[in-house]
Each structure stands twice: as C-alpha cells, then as structure tokens.
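Researcher: Structure for this, please.
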Amino acid sequence: MQFFIDTANLDEIREAASWGILDGCTTNPSLIAREGRDFAETIYEICEIVQGPVSAEVVAQDSEGMLREARLLRQIHEHVVIKVPLIPEGIKTCKVLASEGTPVNVTLCFSVNQAVIAAKAGATYISPFIGRIDDTGHDGLALLQDIVSVYDNYFFDTKVLAASIRHSQHMLEAMRIGSHVATLPFKIMKQMFGHPLTDKGNAGFLADWETVGEDVETTARRFLDRRNG
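Model: Predicted structure, token format:
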C-alpha cells in the first residue's frame, strides 16, 4: 500500500517525508485555504518535499474551466496530479486529461457506480471517502471493499485511494481490504507507530543500557580505533 499524507501543512509533510515511508500527498481547497498561503507556491513546495504524486484540485465547475486550471497546475511541477470532483463535468475533464497522459484523482466518491464511471473515464485514482460515509450511519469500509472487488472483476487500472480516514482502525481495515493507496491526516500517520508494548520494551532496553555507563558511539569508536590500530 502507498501512504499519502492528507494536508497542506509543510511542517507536517516534511516530518512525514523524513520517516522515509511517504509516497505522495493529497490536498484540497479547504486544506490549502487553512494554511493561508499562496496556492501555486504551496503545491510546488509540497511536490519538492514529497517527490511523488501530489493531488491539486481544480475549483471550476465546468469542464472548460477545469481543463484550463488543470493545464496550468500541471506546469507547476511534474509530480502534480489533477484532482476533479465526481460530477459529470469532472468526469468529462478526467477523460480528456487521461487521453493527454495527465494523471487524475477523482474525488468525492460515495458509491460503486461512481467508482466505475471514474475508472471508465481513465482516472488514475478514485477516492472513496470512508469516514464521511460512516458519518451518515453507513459503512464506509464496506464501500471500499466493494470498489476493490468490482475493480478486480473488470481489471480496471484505476487505483483505489482510501480517503477521509478518521482513525488507525480505518487504516488496518483498508490494508486488509487491499486498497492500493490511503491518504491520512498527519495525526493518524503518527498513531500508526504507537503500541504500548513498543514503548515498554524500548524503555526497558534504555534502562538496562544505563547500567553500562557509556553511549554506543563511544564504545564503537573505541573498538574501531583499537582494531584499526
């Protein structure tokens, strides 16, 4: 599974990238507006940090406007992926962009029917919003499972990108289902590291090492100096 971070906060992106496990980033108009920075500059800086797919969303609601925005956004950086909403004008735009070789993330997916439409239009990614579906009293993970299964039936190339992830259990289930990608808020990505036994074990190792009375670097250098004469 590929890990994308769902944010426009450069500090969060830099830290996640420093872990060596970050594959891409998703943004949207709300996330960009929250940072209060220039839109195009922010997208460029994110691409430079991530060095992988970065979804930049169009805001026009007609295909002609979407295409104009998309073609400009693609010039910002080679890693820009165009993000379009799952509406008829967005699908029309997806089809044109895909035919030009532009990667497209079709967002705001809430049904299998929508996911199939996006795949047939050549979407690179489909983004079902599992958390938002849960908010309505329905099962977002069941939708994710259905989309993965239907895509497998018809050998669609579109990657399933689990979005609107609210907690680490969402991530666990998305991995079990076989979602190709998941995009996570920074806090959820950090939560994936956590386990009380890891913390307990690490604390125990450190406590035992304190009895040695010196650090690893010192003892390693002493040995290497002695060995190398």
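Researcher: Any notable elements?
Model: Residues 118 and 175 are 22 Å apart (CA to CA). The mean pLDDT is 97.
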